[in-house]
Amino acid sequence: MMKRTMIALVLAMTLCAATAFAGALEEIQKRGTLRVGMEPGYMPFELTNQKGEIIGFDVDMAKRMAKAMDVELELVSTAWDGIIPALLTDKFDIIMSGMTLTQQRNMSINFAEPYIIIGQTALVAKKHEGTITSYADLNDPKYTIGSKLGTTGEQAAKRVLGNANYISYETEQEGVLELMNGKIDAFVYDLPYNAIAYGQRGEGNMIHLDTPFTYEPLAWAVRKGDHDFLNWLNNFLFQVKNDGTYEKIYDKWFVDGSWQKEIQ
């Protein structure tokens, strides 16, 4: 009798676990909506246009993802410092917000396979042209550098350029503006954003040391234990990278540049 009871208990626990981890895919299908968390301030991955709409590379990928699921798309604008807690408390199903896959983050959330590889670069005040020719030159107490709070840019600035004075900013735009106003000597951040910021405001104001000094894979994040969702995401990424979809979206946001007219 005891043996039969134990077997029943194990089966019940297995069923509960299976139900608990039926996961986001089942919930998305029932709801009819894919909820995507992102902070719209990271060009060209997610940003807000003149109409107040969230646009960007990640947005177009999310639209394609929702279409593949045959559901509607809901974008959930979320502050960066609260984006992981919001995922864990089911405010949305997935983070698609240019998030770097790090071992620290991986302790609390799961990542799909990386969809793009980037790295940190430095925008440097024009007055230092010819003096600062490499990121390593910034590793000096006479310089003040900045980056965005809670990002891998901040981590890299403190780790690699620890001898410099450091200032943290709430947004990327604030950091670039402070650089242009002469409050800091350099702004350390992700290559795609810095490249666009330089293209928009760089001439006569700054130089871009555009060789990345870190290796950073960006990936979509989901709650831990949801293996079915991860499997779907990895298969989706494989599909779009091999049927021309990814290349088309990539060219729109990283090569063409005409989208910049929507935010000017």
Give an account of the 3D structure.
By secondary structure, this protein is of the alpha/beta class. It folds into two domains: 142 residues, D-Maltodextrin-Binding Protein, domain 2 (3-Layer(aba) Sandwich), CATH 3.40.190; 95 residues, Periplasmic binding protein-like II (D-Maltodextrin-Binding Protein, domain 2, 3-Layer(aba) Sandwich). A five-stranded mixed beta sheet has the order 10-9-11-8-12, sandwiched between helices. It has a three-stranded parallel beta sheet with strand order 4-1-5. The N terminus is likely disordered. Keywords: Signal.
Sequence-ordered SSE layout with sheet pairings:
Blueprint: H1 2-20, H2 23-31, E1 33-38, E2 47-48, E3 54-55, H3 57-69, E4 72-77, H4 83-88, E5 94-95, H5 103-106, E6 109-111, E7 116-118, E8 120-125, E9 144-148, H6 152-160, E10 165-169, H7 172-180, E11 186-190, H8 191-201, E12 206-209, E13 216-218, E14 221-223, H9 227-242, H10 245-256
Parallel strand pairs: 1-4, 1-5, 9-10, 9-11
Antiparallel strand pairs: 2-3, 6-14, 7-13, 8-11, 8-12
Keywords: Signal
Domain Ionotropic glutamate receptor C-terminal: 33-256
Family: Belongs to the bacterial solute-binding protein 3 family.
